[in-house]
Structure formats: C-alpha cells, structure tokens
Amino acid sequence: MALEKPYLDVPGTTIFDADQSRKGYWLNQFCMSLMKAENRERFKADEDAYLAEWPMTDEQKAAVRARDLNWAMRTGGNIYFLAKLGATDGLSFQQMAGSMTGMSEQQYRDMMIAGGRSPEGNRVVGEGGDAQGPASQTAAWKAWQEETAQKQLAAKVESAQAAPKTAAQGHARITASVYSSHVPAIGAAIDMGKTEEPYWVPLFKGFEPSKQWMKDNRPDVVFLVYNDHATSFDLGVIPTFAIGTAAEFEPADEGYGPRPVPKVKGHPELASHIAQSVIQQDFDLTIVNDLKVDHGLTVPMNLMFGSPDAWPVQVIPFHVNVVQYPVPSGQRCFALGQAIRRAIESYDQPLNVQIWGTGGMSHQLQGPRAGLINKDWDNRFLDRLIAEPAELAKVSHIEYVREAGSEGIELVMWLIARGAMADVAGGKPPKLVHRFFHVPASNTAVGHLILENTL
Ligand code: DHB
Ligand code: FE
To answer: Which atom of ligand 1 is closest in space to residue 229's alpha carbon?
Structure first.
C-alpha cells in the first residue's frame, strides 16, 4: 500500500491518482494524439489500424471502440484526456458526462437545468442517493466482463492457492547522502576512454574510495537530486521542483548523441508515494512521467558505480530549476529535504534509500567572468554542509553568484540531500565517510562528500 486514498468511498467517482495515471498512461496519450487534425482523420478512417499503433491493453482499445467512458476510466482514462475522443466524435462535455450516468441525453440536460445533481445521499457509498447505482455499461463492456469473468476467477483461485506472500516488514530508510559535481566533460572522459590521461587521473582517483564504499553499501533506491540543463525542460515549461515517476528514464541526447550508459530504472510506487506525501506537506512538485536524464544525473551515477552494463539500483530523478531565475532558496531546499525524509521514511517497504545532491561546486560557464573558481569558499561550504547545514541554508543567492559563480548556484541542490539526513530531524550527526575536492574538471571545482546516517 503506497498511496493514501481517502476518496475510494465517494460514490460514482474515480479519482485520477498516480495508480490510475500509470494504468491509463497510453490510453490517455492516445487520446492526446487526437488533438492533431491529421491524427483524427487517420483514426476516423481506420480505428483498428490507428489503435494498433498504441501500446494500450486490449481492454483499453475495446473501451475506446465502444466509446464507453466509464469503462475507459476503469482502465485508467481521465476525463480531460477522454474528452479528446469525445471531441473527435463531435460530442460536447455535457454529452460525455451524461453518457456515464445511465440517463438519456435529454434527462441529463433536464437535470442540469433543474439545478444539477444533489450531493445529498451522494457523499459516501451506501447512503442511498441517486448516484449510488453501478456505472452504466455498454453492451460491449458487459460482454467483455462476461468473457473475462471466467479467466479472472481462475486467476483468483490460482493466486489464493499460491504460497501466501509474507508481507515485508518495516519501512524505507535513508541510510546515507552523497554529494558530487556533475560536469559533462567527466562523462565524455569516461565515454571516450580518457580516464587514464594525466588531466583526469586525480579526479577519478578521488572517487575510487566511493566506488568501493558503494559496493559495500549498495542501496535499493537512489533519490537523485539534479538539475535538468535545458534538456527535458525547455523554456516552454519550467518546473521549480519535479519528480520522475516513470519506470524508466533514457539518457538524453544533449547535442552530442545520447551517452552510452544504461537506461535508468525508476521506482514508480515509491516516487508516487513521495509525491503524495511531499505535496501534502505543501511543496508543489511537478510530476513527470516522461523524462530523459542528462549529464546532471548520469555523470554522478558513473562516478559512484563505474560503468556497469545495467545500473545496480533504482533511481528517482528529482529536478530543481537552477537555470532561469527565480530559483529556489537554500532554505526552501533544506526544508524540502526534511519533507522528503518524512515521505521516504513513511513508505511501508523496508528499502535502503540514499539521497544524492549533485552539481557545483564553484563554476561560471558564461561571460567575461567564465572560469571563476573559489576554493576557499567551496571548502568552507563543505565544512558547513557537514557541521551546520541549517546555518548554511541561509546563504543568499547573490552570495552563491558572487562567490561561487553564476552556475555555482547548483549547490542549493546539495541542501535538499542534507536536509533529509537524520540529524536534521533530531537524530545523531552523520558520519563523514569520504571528502574530496579537486580543481579543475572542465570549468568547475569538483567537490564530493559521503555522509552516512548513524543509528
Ligand atoms: C560544466 C559544469 C556543469 O555543471 C555543467 O552542467 C556543464 C558544464 C563544465 O564545467 O564544463
Ligand atoms: Fe551542471
């Protein structure tokens, strides 16, 4: 059980939550495709051929063919998406809504003119109002149910006979936080086999202890805070905080071709739980089901895991806007880390979770001031991140810019990871496992820390 669902007993109502969204992903994306006139034409000319292009379930396709919106919603459809199908057929919203009620078009219109449906008796299942009956069904849905009833019965018998699963005990725990710069040139050095060159040797040497530590302390899931660098998010939409809830994230093509690294496997259930918990703690996250990950995420993965054929952990990508101002403050990031901690530790599976903060340290990639490095400020940042993160969180944007360069602002992301550590919630101070600092990698001062929570 991941998501809290206090809405399940509202009669005649399906709330479009993360579970429904996952179930209905391709059905809803198919509906979206009908916003293009040429796709509507192709769909109308040959529905089966058009539907064959979409990885929807057979049931979803059958629901679309039957134009049974209750059925489509049962399979994960959302009304705003399904409305594109209705619009393709020339239906109004009133006709679509009415079609789900079991009333005739005229009856439904008359009910609306008479003031609409009353909530009386329709707030909770079993109250006896006029929306308490079963969902209206097309003949096609009934036939489908009869056909599948036998199969479902057989499956139920089979699963009841299977050895009862012992429910996993406990809850998820944040065991450690990792901080690392994410310079794209590091990825290029790995991809082009240049890690033995004198320029790169000291840098990769600094991460050798980390790779060994990672072998001994491999988590199930990494909650990876990074920033998208004008890769998945262009200037069309700029989310301040965005959580990747997909099952898989492909490495992005940032202009040089996609990096030859494995696909990143997500953890949709934990990500959806975190989204729900953190949003309910009043942080407005953007939920991203379709995300390509750039060097901000893949370079730290290489630094910590080397270059395996498949990444040995699941990853929840968490993007922070540090490209266009206004960017979130250090204090906001630090508080968000605390909310993320509460979210992760309330997940009822015994997962070992690490939280990583990436980007930084001092660097400026633009203008006559490009190349700025501030070793003293960076090292003081590392000291304070370890020992007095709440104070460090008060540092203003302008100080990051003046002291650490315009792109040094990436360091606010480290405060999210630090805010999620146990000591911030009243626990013991973390153990410093590893600290490394090196100049330069490309234009950047590379910083790296591993902090373990102690029991
Ligand atoms: C560099 C560093 C970054 O963090 C980044 O996102 C892009 C480039 C660099 O030093 O070249
Ligand atoms: Fe960056």
So the answer is: 6
